[in-house]
């Protein structure tokens, strides 16, 4: 959010241009108030083009494989042609701007000669036919590695941008950049929160955006390399098994396009590794989203015998005491009360008391029902971290030792 001092600072920079002051402050207000929602950017672009007497303005980000764009209403038909059939790939202005990496808003005249412009089919077949005489644009690096472009298009009927216009755009540029960065981070942080939550449950997971690139991946999924990994140059999921990769690509296309209704299960085997089932889940999203948003979630579940849930997880899930959680974990591993009495060095009476408490907290009525419930938790969790096995108590532990470990109440 822009501070009062920042707004006053912009006002004093333009105090000799009252009309420009009003336009600039209006744009700043909308950028910070609504730019987190991509649907409002078309309105903001309209304000920018109107304030700087352009026919229209466009915000876009283009990679080798795809392009996302938003435009003011006045040039939407032109931009549909501009970005249609991959024409944007031959844009000499964009190529030169990326090559030079010069800061600020740059016109075609700053980067291209008249001969280069005339030789470009994008100019002769698209822009010139629509009587576009000049464009001015700037590059904005995004946290996800992409580069966004904000570009103003001036027609023959518009006066060309003045030196004051260029200076004013430069004043606006850091605010646009800050807003784009915050909007990009919002989608990424939400995806990271999702994968972190699944990591806490021991479930490998990744969240993908509408272009099929990984927005977030948790350490549990990273640990499955090279069976399944994130291809760092492209940011896409790479599966070692070619058959599974083809099935995944097909399911992902369905998730992005909206034809995959809920989820798709993909079996995956790798030499020397336990078999996995990959679950690709389509998430509600708008394909027109400009900023990164979650379009699909990928999880990996091991197939085969699973270890019992950790005592720490059972303690948190059912609000068990540490002693009760150790009993529940032992029963989930198939141990009897006699086994647990020896292992934990407690009496059978103590174990029965703890078991009754476990029944009350979990809702189970018999040991078989409890084992089934805990098995379902094992399936949900997948693998458990090592080193969380139940440990025998020292002599004299149990209820009495639990009480002994509690902090004494301070006298009133």
Can you tell me about this structure?
There is one protein chain. The protein has helices at 4-13, 18-34, 41-51, 76-83, 92-100, 108-111, 114-119, 121-127, 163-200, 219-222, 242-257, 311-318, 322-332, 337-344, 348-362, 367-381, 399-405; strands at 56-62, 67-71, 106-107, 132-141, 147-155, 205-209, 214-217, 228-231, 236-239, 263-268, 276-282, 294-302. The protein is an alpha+beta fold and 412 residues long. Mean pLDDT is 79; it is low at 6-18 and 382-412. Residues 313-378 form the HTH luxR-type domain. One of its GO terms (molecular function) is DNA binding. Residues 381-412 are annotated as: Disordered. Pfam families: GerE (PF00196).
Q: How many strands, what sense, and barrel or not for the largest sheet?
A: 5 strands, antiparallel
Major beta sheet, strand line-up: 2-1-5-4-3
Number of distinct beta strands? 12
CATH level-3 fold name of the largest domain: Beta-Lactamase
Give the count of helical stretches: 17
List the helices and strands and how they pair.
Layout lengths: L3 H10 L4 H17 L6 H11 L4 E7 L4 E5 L4 H8 L8 H9 L5 E2 H4 L2 H6 L1 H7 L4 E10 L5 E9 L7 H38 L4 E5 L4 E4 L1 H4 L5 E4 L4 E4 L2 H16 L5 E6 L7 E7 L11 E9 L8 H8 L3 H11 L4 H8 L3 H15 L4 H15 L17 H7 L7
Antiparallel strand pairs: 1-2, 1-5, 3-4, 4-5, 6-7, 6-12, 8-9, 10-11, 11-12
Helix pairs in contact: 2-3, 2-9, 12-13, 13-15, 13-16
Protein name: HTH luxR-type domain-containing protein
GO molecular function, one term: DNA binding
GO biological process, one term: regulation of DNA-templated transcription
């Amino acid at each position: 959010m822009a501070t009062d001092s920042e707004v006053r600072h912009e006002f004093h920079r333009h105090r000799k241009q009252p009309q420009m002051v009003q336009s600039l402050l209006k744009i700043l207000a909308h950028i910070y108030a609504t730019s987190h929602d991509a649907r409002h950017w078309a309105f903001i672009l309209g304000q920018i083009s109107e304030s700087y007497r352009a026919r229209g303005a466009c915000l876009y980000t283009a990679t080798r494989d795809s392009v996302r764009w938003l435009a003011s209403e006045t040039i939407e038909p032109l931009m549909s042609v501009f970005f249609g059939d991959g024409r944007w790939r031959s844009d000499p202005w964009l190529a030169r701007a990326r090559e030079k990496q010069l800061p600020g808003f740059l016109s075609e005249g700053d980067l291209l000669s008249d001969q280069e412009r005339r030789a470009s089919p994008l100019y002769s077949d698209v822009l010139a036919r629509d009587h576009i005489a000049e464009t001015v644009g700037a590059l904005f690096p995004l946290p996800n590695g992409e580069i966004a472009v904000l570009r103003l298009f001036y027609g023959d009927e518009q006066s060309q941008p003045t030196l004051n216009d260029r200076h004013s755009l430069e004043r606006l540029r850091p605010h646009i950049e800050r807003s784009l960065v915050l909007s990009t981070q919002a989608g990424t942080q939400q995806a990271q929160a999702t994968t972190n939550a699944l990591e806490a449950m021991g479930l490998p997971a990744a969240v993908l955006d509408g272009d099929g690139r990984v927005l977030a991946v948790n350490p549990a999924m990273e640990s499955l390399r090279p069976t399944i990994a994130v291809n760092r140059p492209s940011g896409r999921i790479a599966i070692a098994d070619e058959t599974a990769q083809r099935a995944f690509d097909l399911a992902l296309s369905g998730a992005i396009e909206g034809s995959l209704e809920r989820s798709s299960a993909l079996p995956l085997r790798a030499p020397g590794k336990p078999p996995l089932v990959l679950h690709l889940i389509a998430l509600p999203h708008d394909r027109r989203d400009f900023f990164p948003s979650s379009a699909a979630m990928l999880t990996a579940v091991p197939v085969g015998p699973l270890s019992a849930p950790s005592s720490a997880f059972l303690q948190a899930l059912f609000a068990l005491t540490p002693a009760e959680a150790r009993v529940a974990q032992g029963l989930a591993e198939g141990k009897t009360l006699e086994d647990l009495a020896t292992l934990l060095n407690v009496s059978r009476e103590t174990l029965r008391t703890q078991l009754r408490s476990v029944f009350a907290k979990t809702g189970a009525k018999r040991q078989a029902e409890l084992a089934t419930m805990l098995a379902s938790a094992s399936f949900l969790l997948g693998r458990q971290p090592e080193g969380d096995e139940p440990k025998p108590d020292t002599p004299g532990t149990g209820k009495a030792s639990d009480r002994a470990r509690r902090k004494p109440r301070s006298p009133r």
